[in-house]
Amino acid sequence: MTKKPLLRERHAHEHARVTYVELFFDLVFVFAVTQLSHAVIGHPTGLGLLHATLLLLAVWWAWVFTAWVTNWMDPERTPVRVMLFVLMAAGLVLSAAIPDAFGKRGLVFACAYVFIQVGRSLFFLLGVWREPAHRLNFIRILSWLSLSAVFWITGAFQQGEMRLLIWALAMAIEYASPAMGFWTPGIGRSASTDWVVEGGHLAERCALFTIIALGESIIVTGATVVGLPWTFEVIAAFASALVCSIAMWWIYFSFTAEAASEAIAHSDNPGRIARVAYTYSHLLPVAGVIVAAVGDEWVLHHPLGHTDFKTAAAVIGGPALFLFGALVFKLSVFRQWSRTRIAGLALLAALVPVAGHVSPLTLSVATTLILVAVGAWETWLAEARRAA
Asked: How many angstroms separate the CA atoms of 264 and 261, rounded?
């Protein structure tokens, strides 16, 4: 059987490994996530949060679309490797432009983003032109991304809220497109069954992005504590931040990642699960990790005294967003609610009325203990099922 040009060879009951070049590509996004955290820390306002949210949506979309492409294309083939290296360069430019994306570097950010999205899709389309299913799907995708590109570039020439509004429209077009099956006049829409994915590979790729976010949170915490006096309060805040990251890792990787990989690998419609669980909902726990890292930064600088609104929002909101994302992710993959994660969210909500009356350190420790309790409860449930 002749090998399909540039596409991965797939074998039944075999999990396609994540290649070294894919891991190398991901390094750019360590920088991007760090830039996003610093953007929130530097502009802790409602408008600043809106800016950071839109930029995070763009970074995630650029990354996850590339993960889909390398799920089909073989990164060991030289043209695909070169394509990833070119995208890395564009991703580095995009990441460097994040702090001033709504200022003087708006056009740089927009051009880098459009280049990644449109360029990668065009490369894939040309590489699989003789494959009818892939060809039709990527004609649709390229059409949608080209439409959104008009708004990205147009928005870059605007200022202030007008740029935010136009870029939000561009982002809305891109996020709506998979849910609409990339419907395109004349050629219709794609069905989820058309997206034949290697589920284990895509699950591993998204798990690795979670590792990127967790690693970035540890980097931010470590870099902050180095420049502070090592008082008891600072060391306690540092310990709370580290245990929080460990608890998030425990919840995600001990009870979700591997089981989700198995579930999608054995699904009769892996494209549907991949679209909902990995393309959309997986961004929520990643965002939670980033917000929690921002909260850790503020707690380290001011561990004592009353907790201000922005610190309380980050310290409670980060773990809450992580647990909510983990809840939605589990629901989309396994079609079941997680009572442990619902209980964790309820406990975090109970902290809201008292947040302004306790110190940032106390609030940080409380949210960390809630995540530890969720992880311990899920461990106990897992051990009980194994023993049954």
From this structure: 5
Rounded to a whole number, what is the largest CA-CA distance in the chain? 70
Give residue-wise pLDDT tens across range 222-243: 989 998 999 999 999 999 999 9
Q: Specify the pTM.
A: 0.91
How do the domains of the chain map onto residue ranges?
Answer: 20-190, 199-387
Q: What mean pLDDT is reported for the chain? A: 90
